[in-house]
């Protein structure tokens, strides 16, 4: 008798970090704190960019979209991870698993396109400043942002459709903290090779191409920085670009090591460690690197805070004088 096909029946069980049972409470607290900080930091960026007219430029519009994306991206993974840590493993329906896989790929691919667009924006601003207003007009910025979101949405369809058509005939336990491609492919019992090849080619097209475009932009930026006569100017720009490139390298490095491989079989624990970097760590680092190290953004945040607090301060002062 043929083994049952899980894709039309029951649930998957996410094992999460069950090998670290004695650390479940600590892991829950750490991931919850990171999630709260990530969402709060990115919401602050969106609010400040939206309320300060001086930040209404393509650079900060792209940053606001990246922050909104990071909230969606990390919210696709971390709440389920926290639920798993609280319940020490939980069942996930096949439909829910495929839905999470789709949105994970959708938001991950969109982030690649947005990071490449942001690097291109900085390249134009630093290397071609005279042409910047024409090449990165508000209309051009909106077009690039829309293309990033739409292409990301289309990119998410292929892996989720291919995986949903596989037969899962063995144990239904996913040794991971979310429905990721490698552990799902390890559970499948038919049609895996063609699916792996399609996902491998898609990963090359998205991850490697976007990373190369981003890298070329930053190499051009660095070569322009070296021609800046002022040592302090070079230091300031190098510091900013170096921080951006560090976050981009962490994100792309971990993603490429996970998905640009013909053989999807790594140890489950190594899979989890790598996945934590691009699903939990980089969404927290992005608001820190792209905004909190930015002098203009910090000044804008102070202005917005003063505007928000001044009506309250005026009311308190008036009531004090009346009293």
- Number of extended strands: 5
The amount of beta strand, in percent, is under 5%
Quickly count the helices.
Answer: 10
Helix and strand string, N-terminal first? EHHEHHHEEHEHHHH
Distance between the termini: 86 Å
Give start-end ranges of low-pLDDT stretches.
316-321
Proportion of helical residues: over 70%
- Note the overall shape: globular
Description:
Helices cover 76% and strands 5% of the residues. α3 runs parallel beside α7 and α8 runs antiparallel to α9. Residues 316-321 have low confidence and may be disordered. The strands form 2 sheets. Strands 2-1-4 form a 3-stranded mixed β-sheet. Strands 3-5 form a two-stranded antiparallel sheet. By secondary structure, the chain is mainly alpha-helical. The protein is built from 10 helices and 5 strands; from the N terminus they run βααβαααββαβαααα. The radius of gyration is 23 Å and the shape is globular.
Strand and helix map with partners:
Blueprint: E1 11-14, H1 24-51, H2 58-87, E2 90-93, H3 94-127, H4 132-135, H5 138-164, E3 167-168, E4 173-174, H6 181-187, E5 188-190, H7 192-225, H8 231-259, H9 268-292, H10 295-322
Parallel strand pairs: 1-4
Antiparallel strand pairs: 1-2, 3-5
Helix pairs in contact: 1-2, 1-9, 1-10, 2-3, 2-9, 3-5, 3-7, 5-7, 7-8, 8-9
